[in-house]
Request: fold
Amino acid sequence: MLKGKKVLIIGMMSERSIAYGVADAMHGFDANLGFSCMARFEERIKKMSQPWSPFMLNVCDVSKDEDIEKLAQDVAKTGKIDAIVHSIAFAPRDHLEGGILKNLTREGFQTAHDISVYSLAAVTKACLPYMNDHGAIVALTYLGSSKIIPNYNVMGPAKASLESMVRYLAYDCGTRGIRVNAVSAGPVRTPAASGIKNMGKMLTRVASCSPIQQTITTTQIGNATAFLCSDLSSGITGEVLFVDNGYHAMGVVTDTLTEAATS
Ligand SMILES: NC(=O)c1ccc[n+]([C@@H]2O[C@H](COP(=O)([O-])OP(=O)(O)OC[C@H]3O[C@@H](n4cnc5c(N)ncnc54)[C@H](O)[C@@H]3O)[C@@H](O)[C@H]2O)c1
Reply:
């Protein structure tokens, strides 16, 4: 499905990262992979990605303009790429517990939006000259953009902004046939998610209240991301694709489906 495609994956920090599931799935579909990560994970990512023989490994802190510029230069050195996967988010840990007002600061709000949203636009702007026409960009988002998720707090407005950004970028990039979409993943216990209070409870609850009563896997998220980066999705842009075992489609949950079926 991705044979001959060069895909840059930004935001892998461990084997539990969604980006790892994406990389593993895409490798399975014969993509040629490149990576960008924060400096403190460079050695780990170098080792982890070795089996995939990456075409590049860049170090980038997306809060720094010069790092984003260097990322684009590193991409240019490898020739053109076909797709970018943006799998980055950050909010100060104290902003991810209690109500949204509890520890809210201007700085925390700005940081969440800078790292989790602006970075998508900035990386797209910098790398676009080095992308092939008819390529694809995919960002990772979450249901907290449009529904209240306790403890998600400032990341909710950040993901709403990210999804809006996806649509505006789809418009800009559409002239070159480059598609921009988001995958809205169900909750997964990743390094970033472990900063969210009561994550364990949320995983159990979501699995029991979803039409498919299971926790989503990074492989499932990776497969959907691979689809959105492939020519199979050539008519899809500006879209948010839920990969959450259907949880987003539920209204009121009185019984879990197992209880309903047996009552
Ligand atoms: N885990 C979930 O439940 C879940 C659900 C839906 C969406 N997502 C989204 O998936 C994406 C990946 O998150 P994850 O859950 O795999 O966690 P993760 O911790 O594995 O990945 C987050 C990545 O963001 C990177 N990052 C943070 N600040 C950065 C900066 N300044 N510059 C460069 N990189 C930076 C980290 O290094 C890390 O690699 C995020 O956008 C997240 O919001 C996660």
